[in-house]
Amino acid sequence: MISRTLLYVIIAVALFLFTAWVFSDIFIYIVVSVVLSAILRPLTHYISKTQFFRIRIPRLIAVLLSFLIFLLFISSFVILFIPLISEQVEVLSSLDYEELYNRGTGPLKTFESFLIENSLVTGEEGFLVNTLKENIIDFISGISVGNLLNDIIAFTGQFFIGILAVSFITFFFLYETGSIRNRLIDLIPNRYFEVTISAYNKIERLLSNYLIGLLFQMFSVFSIAALGLSIVGVKYALTIALFAAVANLIPYLGPLLGASFGILVGLSTGLDLDSARDYFFLVIKIVSAFAVVQLVDNIVLQPLIFSKSVKAHPLEIFIIIFAGASLAGIVGMIVAIPVYTVLRVSFSELYEGYRSYTIFNVQKNNA
User: Are 172 and 181 in contact, with CB atoms under 8 Å apart?
Assistant: First the structure.
């Protein structure tokens, strides 16, 4: 009976994975909606319990207000980047491209002269620059404007469809008060009810703690980075800190992306710097600020979030994240821990059910 039960579980998991693969778009929409609803549900519950003049706010209004607060947060994210983008456009428009070309090809010409003087190549003077210019022209001419526009239009359409689908699904996840969960529970056979409910409650608690921990990590990284960059006098400190906080969702790679973005913004906006020494010290200041962020994140935040919230060893987390990266790249790194938590708790509860729960003991005795 135990082997038959395990067979049923394996078949159910295989069917679920196959369905998720066939309907990957819908599955992604549902997963994103589940995450958003898990983040917004505490806010929705708080608003729905609030009373004005002894009148309780309806659930529908609470959901709409939660969406509005979320949209305001996203809008603030975009607004912070507008001044930076506008300044970068002004910098690009004011560049002397002929001088930039001469500076860029200068080292190439020096290297070319070295090769010719030492008889390492047989080409004429200027062959490296001409070859580079021809390759760039061939690359640009090979781009089909029509296909590029079609790809942009298709992506834009899919993007807006995804936003509408996620918003619609998230709305109903927030609006319902347990009816979907009750219907799923009704589908569980009585002999597996105890195991399933135990696993579901533990998974829900661990994932909720993990999401709350991630939000706390993002807020902490943003605060420390903004404070550190402001102290060393880097422009657009809030924008760089916000990008670093969001990029930090990508384990191990996120801090490097945040620091690289900070250095790029610092160098491109430091037009008042006069010498290479000033640029060098600016890079040192930015790297120092992000080094403090990384130390706090590695020593305090990550052990608190990963080890405590999902009850896993740091080495275990390290292996799982890189396994996710090898399977699905950056997306795999982000979702590796939640997926692993669900699988680990499910199999753990199933194993404990065989050992502890009454229904399995009865099955063992009857076998």
Answer: no
